[in-house]
Structures are given as C-alpha cells and as structure tokens.
Write a structure and sequence with these properties.
The chain has helices at about 1-15, 25-40, 50-65, 65-70, 85-90, 95-105, 105-115, 120-125. It is mostly helical. The termini are far apart. It is found in: Mitochondrion matrix, Mitochondrion nucleoid.
C-alpha cells in the first residue's frame, strides 16, 4: 500500500506548479522536498501512520485542484486592501523582497558593505 501512496504523492508533485518568482520560498519546491524526506526509501518506505498520510494527501490535492476556490467563489479578485492578485504576486516575488531589504539598510551599512573586503556575515562573527 505504501507503493500507491508514494506514487500518488509523486504524481501530485509533478502536477504542482513551481513559481520562479519565489525562488527558495515556493510551496511546490517545499512540497517536493518534504515528499523526498518522507519517502526516503521510495516505494519501500514504511508509513507509520497511513491514515494521517492519506489525510495529508487529500488536503494537498484539494488545495492543488482549487476545491475551496470553486466551492466558495469570491465576488471580487481583490483583498480588503484593494490590492489585486497580480500586485500581490509582484510584491511577494523574491527580487522585490530583496529590493525592500536593501532599501531598509541604513547609509552606514551600505557604505560599509560597499567598501568592505569581506561579507557582512563574516563581520558579525
């Protein structure tokens, strides 16, 4: 039975999209890592709690198929702030977050990083 669970999870991982704009923070990438971790031995992995495993799969499958989005349709494609889906994706992109972090740095930190021969991580050690 572990073989079918493993194959179902693999199929779900193949179908789950990867968002390139969220490098290192993408749900699809995280899901793939967790499945690889949970099924270290592949089809030979023994599942200690098959019921919980099946529940997790069903939950992920519902998220993937937009079950709740179709069950509870939204009247508008904006949030309470009025921000659209595209604007949210743009703000949450990894590049945008890096720019935001760069903007938060003070002038002294920027100058020190610019003229320092070593990286800031080494400086804090």
């Amino acid at each position: 039975m572990a073989v079918t669970r493993y194959r179902r999870f693999l199929k779900l991982c193949e179908e789950w999209p990867v968002e390139e704009s969220k490098r290192g923070r993408d749900l699809g990438t995280f899901l793939r890592q967790r499945v690889a971790q949970a099924f270290r031995e592949g089809e030979n992995t023994q599942i200690p709690d098959p019921v919980t495993c099946d529940e997790m799969f069903e939950s992920l499958a519902r998220i993937h198929t937009n079950h709740y989005k179709t069950k509870y349709p939204r009247l508008k494609d904006t949030s309470f702030t009025g921000v659209t889906v595209e604007e949210c994706k743009m703000v949450l992109a990894t590049d945008s977050l890096k720019q935001l972090e760069e903007a938060k740095k003070g002038k002294w930190t920027k100058l020190r990083e610019k003229f320092s021969a070593k990286s800031p991580e080494e400086d804090s050690k």
